[in-house]
Specification:
heterodimer, A: alpha/beta, Rossmann fold, CBS-domain, 2 domains, about 35% helix, globular, B: MetI-like fold, three-stranded antiparallel beta sheet, 17 helices, about 5% strand, flat, transmembrane (chain B), ABC_transp_perm/SBD (chain B)
């Protein structure tokens, strides 16, 4: 758990960070966001004291960070930055082992840990262990940077715009990986970005800063639904607010049981699924805009429970189907998601209505 | 038109130019000279007069091989480069062979005072060999190991020529024989002077470079002071140091006993240290400044102590640049020590100034050639060290 209490940073009389207070519970993914110069990076760097505090306190799991010896504090906190900061003269394995080495772990424990982390980030140890940073792609280098930050199993992971310098496709892959790693490790993460989509994708809590002040600290959905003021509204962006909301809602929250027989009660949505022996959907009868006939199910327009509603909607629009089959890992039909689901009408409500 | 045609014929223009220069010098300039004594000027001897007939045939054969290597056809580019590289070694040996052989024959029935010296064509052939080899090594993109191997082969060829008494009758070797004990003394002295300057220059320069990196405000002042030292002519510095140092030596007797006086070793070393400081400080500074700020931020953020950052991150990454500074300074010091002989510091400069005083050119060469050889060896050795110090990841 991290508590910022009245955190203040002053440069030459100017408040760069002004009386910021917030609490991030253990296991949360906190994102500091705001326009350039809002003090988000400064706030982050005060947590591991790369920048000294001008006022206020930071409590890390009960310890005031100002009372801990600097190096000892930093070894308890993982740190990953945009430029990766990998040591060019050390191999990937040596880089990842940096903090365990500083903590004087025995060699066998370090080796095991390096292998474990490389596996977590899908870097084949036999291929990457002995490579040097200049032999890595941008995405690989960033993975090694994050693996290095996690090496000594720190209490908190600080990330300063880690994916700001990679191409959009790699960034999406890295964001998905980061989300998975967060779920796998349950780490408390403080993440700085200026990209609202990235924040909505990753955060469990978002702190929006402007001019050094904390404007709103909330869950992503609340920030979208109940913005504190016009600045928040503007920063989130109004044009595709609905789509942003959908990107934070998941198919499993809104899916309903599959329709296996025709319902005359649902005008325009009269449809049913044909299954094979293994329970996998093979065809859809009705519910297509083009024709009311039988359409073979394609994997391109199936949904999974952990898919966002935004993606589900996108598939519906592109493949011109009013309803997607929701399948499990084995491909079995476990539900369906239709327009009502996307509109936020949950299964129970529909059952009532019918 | 003419140039396009010659481009079609000539594959390697550098080699062709060097060959033309070599042939012109063989035709126009003396290969050796024969003089009645060590001070008188001699009579010119051309290559074809100096060489035995088998040597002439060998020269012609190697010349033809090199010509073949310079042409665009029929050899492939790489084969031609290898041919020129290999042909250079016997040419080198032959250059020495012809000179030594001539000296033996010419002095058989001459007076004991008569001297044989090498002439312009001997040197030109020697340099043509060196240039052909350097050019071919570069174009073949041989690695450090390949270059070192070839360099050692060339050195072995030259050493073999010096081993027997082949070159003994040459004037410069007779000077060497006269000075044999002295030569070793001056070699040691030369090396001690270089080492005696480099060690304190490193001890002072490395911390100064680190300081320049850490304290931006000190940097400009420091570099302008060091720049002033660098621009002073060396002879002027030696002159300027005479008065204060002799005063110091007299005023503080124990310093005087240690050898501090207006002339000799003390002013030589002081001047050499002053000249060495700027390259060492500047390279240390820029080596440290070149370490990526991301790596430094990450190092601090992960909890490395300032000392760990310096020794594990900054110094390993700055080392190639720092060693390049050492390389500049070493080669520079080997040359500057020659001038220090003027104020009685000794070293190979002693032969040069003695030779100049006596108009004995071969004695001058006895000082100059070993100085050049020392500088080339030091340069090469440090170059290898620089490339070894390059971090494995960036090599």
């Amino acid at each position: 758990m991290i508590e910022l209490q009245g955190l203040t940073k002053t440069y030459a009389g100017k408040h760069v960070v002004d009386d910021v207070s917030l609490t991030l519970e253990t296991g949360e993914f906190g994102v500091l966001i705001g326009p350039s110069g809002c003090g988000k990076s400064t706030t982050l760097k005060m947590i591991n004291r790369l920048i000294p505090l001008s006022g206020g306190r930071i409590i890390l799991n009960g310890d005031d960070v100002n009372t801990l010896p600097t190096e000892q504090l930093r070894r308890r906190i993982g740190y990953a930055i945009q430029s990766t900061g990998l040591f060019p003269h050390w191999s990937v394995a040596q880089n990842i082992a940096t903090v365990p080495q500083l903590l004087k772990w025995p060699k066998s424990r370090i080796d095991d840990r390096v292998d474990e982390l490389m596996a977590m980030f899908h870097l084949d140890p036999s291929e990457f262990r002995h490579k040097y940073p200049h032999q890595l792609s941008g995405g690989q280098a960033q993975r090694v940077g994050v693996a290095r930050a996690l090496a000594a199993d720190p209490e908190v992971l600080l990330m300063d715009e880690p994916f700001g310098a990679v191409d959009p496709i790699t960034r999406e892959v890295l964001q998905a990986e980061m989300k998975r790693v967060h779920q796998q490790t349950g780490k408390t993460i403080v993440f700085v970005t200026h990209d609202m989509d990235e924040a909505l994708q990753l955060a469990t809590r978002i702190a929006l800063l402007n001019g050094g002040r904390l404007v709103q600290y909330d869950r992503p959905i609340e920030m979208m639904v109940t913005p504190a003021d016009d600045f928040v509204r503007e920063f989130i962006g109004q044009a595709d607010l609905g789509l942003k909301l959908l990107s934070r809602r998941w198919v499993h929250q809104y899916q309903r049981p599959p329709s296996l027989a025709h319902h005359a009660t649902l005008p325009g949505l009269d449809h049913c699924w044909q299954l094979d022996d293994a329970g996998r959907p093979v065809a859809l009868e009705g519910a297509r805009l083009d024709d009311g006939g039988v359409t073979p199910v394609k994997s391109e327009w199936t949904a999974t429970p952990d898919m966002s509603l935004k993606e589900a909607l996108s598939r519906m629009v592109w493949y011109r189907v009013m309803v997607l089959p929701v399948i499990d890992e084995a491909g079995k039909l476990i539900g369906e998601i239709g327009m009502q689901g996307v509109m936020g009408i949950q299964a129970e409500q529909r059952v009532h209505a019918s | 038109m003419a140039s396009t045609r010659s481009r079609q014929w000539v594959g390697n223009r550098v080699l062709m130019t060097l060959l033309v220069a070599a042939v012109a010098s063989v035709g126009l300039l003396p290969f050796a000279s024969l003089s009645p004594n060590r001070l008188a000027s001699g009579q010119s001897v051309m290559l074809w007069e100096a060489s035995a007939s088998w040597q002439l045939a060998a020269f012609a054969l190697i010349g033809l091989a090199l010509l073949l290597a310079a042409l665009a056809r029929p050899l492939s580019v790489r084969t031609a480069l290898w041919l020129s590289l290999i042909a250079t070694l016997p040419l080198l040996a032959l250059d020495f062979q012809a000179l030594g052989g001539y000296a033996h024959r010419a002095l058989v029935d001459a007076s004991p005072a008569a001297r044989v010296s090498q002439g312009a064509t001997f040197w030109i052939l020697l340099f043509v060999c060196v240039l052909i080899a350097i050019d071919a090594l570069q174009r073949l993109r041989l690695g450090m190991a390949g270059r070192a191997l070839y360099g050692m082969a060339a050195l072995a060829v030259i050493a073999a020529c010096f081993c027997g008494d082949l070159l003994a009758p040459l004037s410069i070797m007779r000077e060497f024989a006269n000075q044999r004990d002295n030569f070793v003394d001056q070699l040691i002295r030369h090396l001690l002077l270089v080492g005696g300057a480099l060690v304190p220059a490193l001890l002072v320069g490395l911390p100064l470079g680190l300081m320049a990196n850490r304290r931006a405000r000190l940097r400009n002042g420091l570099f302008s002071v060091l720049n002033v030292f660098q621009t002073l002519p060396s002879i002027a510095v030696f002159g300027l140091l005479i008065a204060p140092l002799s005063a110091l030596g007299r005023a503080v007797p124990w310093l005087g006993d240690l050898g501090v006086s207006g002339i000799g070793v003390a002013p030589a070393i002081i001047a050499l240290v002053l000249y060495s400081l700027l390259p060492i400080v500047r390279n240390t500074y820029s080596g440290l400044a070149g370490v990526s700020s991301g790596a430094l931020e990450a190092a601090r953020g992960m909890g490395m102590t300032p000392r760990q950052i310096l020794w594990q991150v900054e110094i390993p990454l700055a080392l190639p640049v720092i060693l390049s500074g050492l390389r500049i300074v070493t080669v520079q010091a080997i040359g500057l020590v020659v001038v220090a002989a003027l104020i009685g510091a000794g070293g190979f400069g002693a032969f040069i100034f003695q030779g100049l005083g006596q108009y004995a050119i071969d004695l001058v060469l006895l000082g100059a050639i070993p100085t050049i050889v020392l500088a080339v060896i030091a340069d090469f050795a440090l170059q290898i060290l620089v490339s070894l110090s390059r971090p494995a990841g960036t090599r």
